[in-house]
Amino acid sequence: MTLYTRVNQETCISCGACGEIAPDVFAYDEDGLSYSLLDQNDGAVEVPEGLVEEVEEAHEECPTESIRVAEQPFAEQVEKTKAG
Fold it and tell me: Is the predicted pLDDT of residue 79 greater than 70, yes or no?
């Protein structure tokens, strides 16, 4: 399964769940907000196959639903929205 992820930092409450569940994917910036290590939170780099289950669990466990996942890069989703 192809999966991409990013964090909505506007809703992140820095609870630490994602970093505990998927430490190879999520870290925290200087403000304590989570972000994706894969691509500095752009959502453009595919989650490695061996980490997909951890990312899905982090997505499910996030209390504010700030962990976003998609089957295509987030940049492509933005372009489709702009195109109409």
Answer: no
* Positive or negative torsion for Cα 69, 41, 62, 21: positive
Tell me: pLDDT of 66 over 70.
yes
Instruction: Supply the pLDDT for residue 75.
Output: 77
CATH top-level class for 4-83? alpha beta
What mean pLDDT, rounded, does the chain reach? 92
CB 4 within 8 A of CB 43: yes
Domain ranges, ordered by start, for the chain: 4-83
Kindly report the pTM of this predicted structure: 0.87
CA–CA separation, 33 and 14 (whole Å): 5
Rounded distance between C-alpha atoms, residue 66 and residue 45, angstroms: 18
3-state helix/strand/coil string of 54-71: HHHHHHHHCCCCCEEEEC
